[in-house]
Design a protein that fits this description.
heterodimer, A: 111 residues, mainly beta, five-stranded mixed sheet, B: 111 residues, seven-stranded mixed sheet, four-stranded antiparallel sheet, 11 strands, globular
Chain lengths: 111, 111
């Protein structure tokens, strides 16, 4: 499993776009990049997954440069309810792969 | 579908007591796992299973046992509870390369 590095915490204001970058220098050819969101007192939930370039859904966008050694989760126009911990995971996500979470990024949205 | 369910929601144990945390999923997922999350920390993988009859250790397996007799159930047993096992325990399941679905968690306090 590729090791990931993310900022420990970030602050932003309501209405702003928030970008959280994850470094994964030893990502393997078959690895996917997956982001999870965890609200206080809840289990993590899937946000977005990608392999290369850009992926967008109704919640976020994921930008992956050509070398795939990093990725950026972009949250458009955040609100107070986006305050959560965001985890970046890298792996094949195959049947037998155990999924390891890092410490994540604690995002705090201010009014 | 109920998704991933966990019981109990909250438990208080005395040091040395044993107990079983229950986890069930109704999505016919092959892969199930247990994580623990200490206050302000990320998730750490305890044990996981890739199918009925198959289990393996995660990052922090000591003091815990698991078994997987059916696809639906994946109980976690604490053999002799210690204060260091005070934590929130999350069960998760997935199918193949799909994303993980997490249960609501069990809060355990060991006195």
């Amino acid at each position: 499993l590729a090791k990931t590095t993310q900022p420990i915490s970030m602050d932003s204001y309501e209405g702003q776009e928030v970008n959280i970058t994850c470094s994964h220098n030893n990502i393997a050819t078959n690895d996917y990049i997956t982001w999870y969101q965890q609200f206080p007192s809840q289990g993590p939930r899937f946000i977005i997954q990608g392999y290369k370039t850009k992926v967008t859904n109704e919640v976020a966008s994921l930008f992956i440069p050509a070398d795939r050694k990093s990725s950026t989760l972009s949250l458009p126009r955040v609100s107070l309810s986006d305050t959560a911990v965001y985890y970046c995971l890298v792996g094949r996500m195959n049947r037998d792969d155990k999924i390891i979470f890092g410490k994540g990024t604690r995002l705090h949205i201010l009014p | 579908n109920a998704g991933v369910t966990q019981t109990p929601k909250f438990q208080v144990l005395k040091t040395g007591q044993s107990m079983t945390l229950q986890c069930a999923q109704d999505m016919n997922h092959e892969y199930m796992s247990w994580y623990r999350q200490d206050p302000g920390m990320g998730l750490r993988l305890i044990h996981y299973s890739v199918g009925a009859g198959i289990t393996d250790q995660g990052e922090v397996p000591n003091g815990y046992n698991v078994s997987r007799s059916t696809t639906e159930d994946f109980p976690l047993r604490l053999l002799s509870a210690a204060p260091s096992q005070t934590s929130v325990y999350f069960c998760a399941s997935r199918s193949g390369a799909e994303t993980q679905y997490f249960g609501p968690g069990t809060r355990l306090l060991v006195l």
